[in-house]
Amino acid sequence: NLETGPRYRFRVYYNEVDEHPLKDENSQLRGEKIKLEESLVQEKAKRLRVHKKAREALEKAEKKGAFYNKKFIQLAKKVIANGKKVLNTETNQYETFNLVGEGELPFTESDPKALNNDDIDNINMWLYLKDKFIISNEAWHEIAIKANDLPNIYSIKKQINELNNEWNLKPTPGDAEGVQLGFAESLQEHIVRLQKNGEINDGETITIKLSGDGTNIGKGLTILHEKDVAMGRHDNLRDSLADPRMEMSNLKEISANNCTYKIEYFLGGDLKFLALVCGLGRANEHYACV
To answer: Coiled coil where (predicted)?
Structure first.
């Protein structure tokens, strides 16, 4: 037999596909799908809450706007005219033009609202937060306009002036920032208070404890190898405390309401403060207080 064409050989390979990895992958995808569906439900709920808050804020803003419109009408009586008289040359008589209706501009009380103790405590609390976080007067004015139950900047400034008038604050000497009270002046105020309460008699010795606390929870990280940055200058502390140190060294007796008292000083405070003043290290550390 004659062969009339080329001859070929074929090999057939069969690869068995394992179904277990596919099942695992399918199960994993199904779990991710369930998580995405749950996340979608949460996002929808969150969006509904946001819409609800926005609607409430809008309603509150509308009510507040109506309140300010009413307030403006009340205050406008003090600064604008509600009518105008014009001479009519033809009749030679004055004609009155009403700019605003008389009933729309009722008079208001000129005296400011008297503050009770709770109001003053509330203002002092906000004043403390304003100073703590260094909020400017301009920023506070904008916040007070948009927020509820916040004292306005006028009340804040008024309370600052009243507090400053209660104490004779003076800047500390030296380059470091700080303020101080006169030691003798402050001590006399305390003695007068003790005299009124009958807690001190003429000629008694007044014992005064000197203490301090330098804890600053919010202070950042300090690397001790950066000596110029990490360690404070002793000159700053010496200069800042120069006035009270001089006053206390010269003040052995003090008089108040024709009564004279001797003074005795004591150094007190926690172990850290005492170690800091004396330049010593605590029992559980290897170095002196930094």
So the answer is: 26-71
